[in-house]
Design brief:
Layout lengths: L4 H5 L22 H24 L3 H12 L6 H8 L3 H13 L3 E5 L7 E5 L1 H21 L5 H17 L6 H6 L4
Antiparallel strand pairs: 1-2
Helix pairs in contact: 2-6, 3-4, 3-5, 4-5
GO biological process, one term: response to stress
GO molecular function: DNA binding; DNA-binding transcription factor activity
Protein name: DNA-binding MarR family transcriptional regulator
Length: about 180
């Protein structure tokens, strides 16, 4: 049997073989990044039923509509990508689909005429207005296992983590930050 460098390092001073040390393991079910990722995937999938089955939208398309829906003015695809933490190529494909379906439209950027911005069309706005109450209801169902106080605590704790990672936490903050 071949010996590894860790086997050799375990030898005792007398030259005999030491019993192997148990290897430390990362318990994924206690590892916060794993838990957050898993929760995000499950919640996203649960919410997607509202817009995927009924309207044929995938998650990236909904992210574009949701981002445009909460804004008062048009924004760039780059803003959507940064705001949602979704790869720009994924957002680009979603934008193309939504443009073709007449749910969003391009508008000229007044500040830079070489760039276009995106906004919801009337059809897109109507879809957003129909969907967001359903998604809020579904969010309430998902969070029903928490008391009102626990929901506030969860929100505050998530806010602390977002702040520590320098993530935008409000629409006003996102609008004011030039990076978005």
């Amino acid at each position: 049997m071949a010996r590894t460098s860790s086997d050799i390092a375990l030898k005792t001073r007398e030259g005999g073989e030491a019993s192997p040390r148990p290897k430390a393991r990362l318990d994924l079910f206690k590892f916060v990044p794993f838990r957050l990722n898993r929760l995000a995937a499950e919640v996203s999938a649960a919410l997607s039923v509202e817009y995927q089955e009924r309207h044929g939208l995938d998650i990236p398309a909904w992210r574009v509509i949701a981002t445009l829906g909460f804004r008062n003015d048009a924004c760039s695809a780059q803003y959507i990508s940064q705001c949602t933490r979704t790869h720009k190529s994924t957002i680009s494909r979603a934008v193309t689909t939504l443009l073709n379906e007449g749910l969003i439209e391009r508008v000229e950027n007044e500040a830079d005429r070489r760039e276009f911005r995106l906004q919801l069309t009337r059809k897109g706005r109507a879809l957003y207005e129909e969907l967001f109450p359903q998604l809020l209801r579904r969010e309430d169902e998902i969070l029903a296992c928490l008391s009102a106080q626990e929901r506030k605590q969860l929100s505050a704790l998530l806010g602390k983590i977002e702040e520590s990672l320098d993530l935008i936490q409000t629409s006003a903050e996102a609008d004011a930050k030039q990076a978005y």
